[in-house]
Amino acid sequence: MKLLMCLLFGVCFSPTFGQVSNIRAGLWSDVSCWNNASLPNLDDTVSLNYDIVIDINANCKFLNANGHNVIINTGINLNVAGIARPADSTFLDSRDGQTYKFKHIGSQVWMTQNLNYSIQGSWCYANNASNCAVYGRLYEWDAAIGAAPPGWHVPSDSEWDTLITFLGGYAEAGGKMKSTNLWAAPNEGATNSSGISCLPGGFGYSNGIFNSLRFVGNWWSSTADISDTSKAWYRGLDYSGAGIDRLAYFKFVAFSIRCIRD
């Protein structure tokens, strides 16, 4: 169905894209329709050729706060946040038949399990398949970049920042992300209120050395460290704190992957 939005009073931001050919239901963030650099004319419109969920409460809050008005004229099947939104569900990886849960968190859609797709440059912790079944595989950075299933990807450094900002910032987001079980005591601050259920998969090396299962969880970003090309950025959680770390480390170390939807 075609959705038509009219932005009135010349105070909203200008749409910056043409026809969208995606056929699935989506979030406001699926269509990058705002451009902070310019303002629209009075009769600017945006046409979408698929049904969309418009999360006014979250992603358009800044418009309401500034006294801006948005009038939405639409056909059928428009869902407004607070009434309906895409369900949190599961995704089947057709490459190996494994199923992963996913969840909408703010404007993003995250898998709530670590990836467990076997690829060269990845290992189960301690080379024990039972650890893969619980914690997912550990991936060197080069392997991680090519491991995500179609429709998903390893989050960039900025996409991690978007999630962490939504969860209250680096000092407290970690507790909201950590699962309440499988971490070593005291599992400081763990509430998993985000529902992303991060687990302490530890880390490993190609020489068969593994460390810190149940004590730390580290997840690659897709962003290399431009100041040292042998390193890339990752996010780290620890059993003893409620915060989350942003660090760069050597690409040959094997960390977990948490995928985000394209």
Short overview:
The protein is of the alpha+beta class.
Description:
This protein has 262 residues and is an alpha+beta fold. The protein has helices at 56-59, 61-65, 129-135, 141-145, 157-166, 173-177, and strands spanning 3-6, 45-48, 53-54, 71-74, 79-80, 90-93, 98-105, 108-111, 122-123, 138-139, 152-153, 203-204, 210-211, 216-224, 231-238, 245-250, 260-261. The longest helix has 10 residues, at 157-166. The two termini are 22 Å apart. The model is unreliable at 1-85 (pLDDT under 50).
Described by the principal axes of the CA atoms, the overall outline is: globular
Counting DSSP H or I runs of 4 or more residues, the number of helices is 6
- Helix share bin: 10-25%
Mean pLDDT: 77
Q: What's the total number of strands?
A: 17
Radius of gyration: 20 Å
Approximately how much beta-strand content do the residues carry?
25-35%
Q: Which H/E pattern describes the elements? A: EEEHHEEEEEEHEHEHHEEEEEE
Which spans have pLDDT < 50 for at least 5 consecutive residues? 1-85
How would a textbook summarize the main sheet?
3 strands, antiparallel
Give the end-to-end Cα distance, rounded to a whole number of Å.
Answer: 22 Å
- The order of strands across the largest sheet is 2-1-4
Structural class, judged by helices and strands?
A: alpha+beta
